[in-house]
Design brief:
Helices cover 32% and strands 23% of the residues. The protein has 16 helices and 30 strands. The protein is α/β, with parallel strands linked by helices. The longest helix has 29 residues, at 668-696. The protein folds into four domains: 8-184, Immunoglobulin-like (Sandwich), CATH 2.60.40.10; 200-488, 7-stranded beta/alpha barrel, CATH 3.20.110.10; 503-565; 569-663, Immunoglobulins (Immunoglobulin-like, Sandwich).
Length: 708
């Protein structure tokens, strides 16, 4: 540390602060991370005079060894005309035996303690900077070598330096203070394995999920909590997100918005459509139609088939509602990923899974505790990587996270996020310098923007990351390989089993699916009805749906199918008389549906042969339909012509028909036998008569002579 003399006004300020701390025992200490002092309360509960606060609006994200660190800020509240602004750079933060570099950054954010100073404070009057109430810019020029310009602050080593910014009156009494972070870059920037600049990839996304959003009737049914989330997201998007963002909005919610007539829902849908078609269009995440247990479902062929149906339904829904194709390279449904499901996710096109940190068991303890949330973690034997959504960064962006009115300004929030990300970059950069670039690509972060994040916060973050540097803001920047620590890839294991047993729900879905597919084969042109049932049926796989609710959804689908199938009338059971050996029996069907249907018939009879075989598929147009059935009589007499009907795939049965048939004809064989019988009888009679005559002999007539 460089020795320095303490200015006289600073000594006076510290003495006054100490006396105030001793004399006023009821003072309220500002919460950790606060930008300004909390207004003191006097006896009786009345508020003291308004406090002064520093609101940071922008901070330079990183500085070259010989560059300028710039802080944009304004001062709210009372400020003397002779107020003095002081900046002081503190010693760079470093990892220790009990904490990582990121842990050191988070400690400063939480405690508001910048640590030991590195350089003497620099004072300047606020008036010399401009109007602090509307905004001023404070520049701190730095140099990386001792031989540089002496007017610049010497920062010989790369790293993260806390910088204290405070305002005080002319007597040295501090009115407000805050801390920002200065990220001094190395003299030589590291490169990745492919020779490109080494960087941490940051993917920003907004997640909105919810329960089943369609009633069994197919009408929209957004619960209040889900609608509130969607409204907050719409407010953020409508203010303008100045950079790439991924919308991980559950597709069944999009379906509900599209079907809803509520003005609020229509406005949300308008904003989402605008966000996905603007100059910087938002990316829509590919995910299952509803929240399903992908890990458990992927253990069976039927389960995998249903997940594929969910994905197909998502694709059609997003295309229909928003007019874009979803992107599934990052799998945001990571809370149910299992070992068995990893190959299946690869088949689905995923390259990275957003898996909660608690579900990632890192193989190398040296990678903890920051590895899961800041690195691309390998998931052997698959080629997928995993990154845990960084919830601590999300909290930094969340306005009102500490429940205080003295929350950091948008620029300071963005600066804290950048510093936390740089705490991942610096160790990897140091390793890269000694390992030939083996650490990059690898460092990666998934930042979930809390629903309702203020547009000013996002604007400050995107502005800070607009220029090329150690952090890239790209939703498509999915690491292709795991990060490395000490030259070894960081790998992890995911749970072996899914969180639920989808067996009962899956069986019900499959049973209902057979009926839906049966009607689809029966009425190929009834696409609207089948699509409606597919959406309703898909919702029943939601992990939070009860068995009773599932049953309600399935019964509605089966009842609808039953009503439609009942509008196909089979031929009446009337008596049919056949007088010829070769005949045609007319069958009269009626189709009261507004479209043609294909019906499979199975026709059989003991005494009749049916031309063309026992099975056939007939197309019934709307209205009356006559089907002529060619038959051949095998034997005369009475018989039943039995007709069973079903959908072409056999899943749906129509009422069976038994038609009585009487035949008064004989077959060719029968006729031949009859003729032969008659000829035989005629011959037999002839022979018998002649034999009898010979036996009796000639007869005498009257008056014949006799011998005496």
């Amino acid at each position: 540390m460089i020795a320095r003399s303490v200015p006289e006004h600073t000594v006076r300020r510290r003495i006054r602060l100490l006396l105030c701390a001793v004399a006023i025992s009821t003072a309220v200490v500002a919460p950790a991370g606060s930008l300004s002092a909390v207004p003191r309360q006097v006896a009786g509960g009345s508020a003291a005079a308004p406090s002064t606060s520093i609101v940071v609006t922008a901070v330079t994200p990183w500085v070259d060894p010989d560059g300028d660190f710039r802080i944009g800020m304004r001062v709210d509240g009372p400020l003397p005309v002779d107020a003095v602004l002081t900046t002081q750079i503190h010693q760079r933060l470093q990892a220790a035996r009990t904490t990582t570099l990121r842990g050191a950054v988070e400690r400063v954010i939480a405690s508001d303690d910048a640590g030991p100073p590195l350089q003497s404070p620099r004072d300047r009057t606020v008036a010399s900077l401009g109007d602090a109430a509307t905004g001023v810019v404070v520049d701190i020029p730095i140099r990386g070598t001792r031989s540089g310009d002496s007017e610049r602050v010497l920062l010989p080593n790369p790293g993260i330096h806390p910088v204290t910014v405070s305002v005080a009156d002319a007597a040295g009494t501090e009115l407000a203070s805050t801390i920002v972070f200065l990220n001094r870059l190395p003299d030589t920037m590291p490169v990745s394995r492919d020779g490109s600049p080494a960087a941490v990839s940051l993917s920003v996304y907004a997640l909105v999920d919810g329960p089943a959003a369609l009633r069994p009737s197919g009408q929209a049914d957004l619960d209040p909590a889900t609608r509130e989330q969607l409204s907050a997201l719409a407010s953020t998007l409508e203010s303008g997100v100045p950079g790439p963002i991924t919308l991980a909005v559950r597709p069944n919610l999009l379906d509900a918005l599209d079907r809803s007539e509520d003005p609020t829902d229509r406005n949300i849908l308008r904003v989402l459509r605008s966000a996905t078609s603007g100059s910087t269009p938002a990316t829509v995440a590919g995910m299952p139609y509803v929240d399903v247990d992908v890990g458990s479902l992927s253990e069976s062929a039927d389960g995998r088939g249903e997940v594929l149906r969910q994905i197909a339904l998502t694709n059609s829904t997003v295309q229909h509602v928003l007019g874009v194709e979803p992107v599934g390279t990052t799998w945001y449904d990571g809370d149910s990923v299992t070992e068995a499901s990893l190959p299946f996710l690869e088949v689905l096109g995923a390259r990275r899974a957003a898996i909660p940190a608690d579900d990632l068991r890192l193989h190398d303890p040296r990678s903890t505790p920051d590895g899961a949330r800041s690195l691309a973690v390998g998931l052997p034997p698959s080629t997928l990587t995993a990154t845990a959504p960084d919830e601590s960064l999300s909290r930094l962006l969340d306005e009102g996270a500490n429940g205080s009115d003295d929350e950091p300004g948008p620029g300071q929030r963005a600066n804290q996020v950048v510093a936390t990300l740089m705490a991942t970059w610096y160790p990897a950069a140091a390793e890269s310098g000694s390992a030939g670039g083996s650490e990059f690509p690898g460092p990666a972060t998934l930042l979930r923007t809390p629903v309702g994040t203020g547009p000013a916060v996002l604007a400050a973050l995107y502005a800070a990351l607009a220029d090329p540097g150690p952090i890239t803001l790209d939703p498509g920047a999915v690491p292709t390989a795991a990060a490395a620590v000490d030259g070894e890839p960081v790998t992890a294991q995911v749970p072996a089993d899914g969180p639920t047993d989808p067996g009962p729900a899956l069986r019900e879905v499959l049973d209902t699916r057979r009926s839906i597919d049966g009607y689809r084969s029966l009425a190929p042109s009834a696409t609207a009805e089948a699509a409606e049932w597919d959406r309703i049926d898909a919702q029943t796989l939601h992990v939070d749906m009860s068995a009773a609710d599932r049953d309600t959804y399935h019964r509605r689908i089966l009842a609808d199918i039953g009503v439609l199938v009942a509008q196909i009338e089979m031929p009446p059971e009337r008596q049919v008389l056949l007088t010829d050996r070769e005949a045609t029996i007319p069958l009269r069907f009626r189709n009261d549906l507004p479209y043609a249907v294909d019906v499979q018939l199975w026709i059989r009879s003991v005494r009749l042969d049916v031309g063309g075989g026992d099975r056939r598929i007939v197309t019934l147009r709307p209205g009356e339909n006559r089907v002529d059935l060619p038959v051949t009589v095998r034997a005369p007499g009475g018989t039943l012509l039995r007709i069973d009907a079903s959908s072409p795939d056999g899943a749906l049965a129509l009422p069976a028909v038994a038609i009585p048939v009487t035949s008064r004809t004989i077959s060719g064989v029968g006729a031949a036998l009859s003729v032969l019988s008659l000829l035989f009888l005629a011959g037999w009679w002839t022979v018998s008569i002649r034999r009898e005559r010979r036996r009796r002999g000639p007869e005498r007539g009257p008056g014949a002579a006799t011998d005496r």
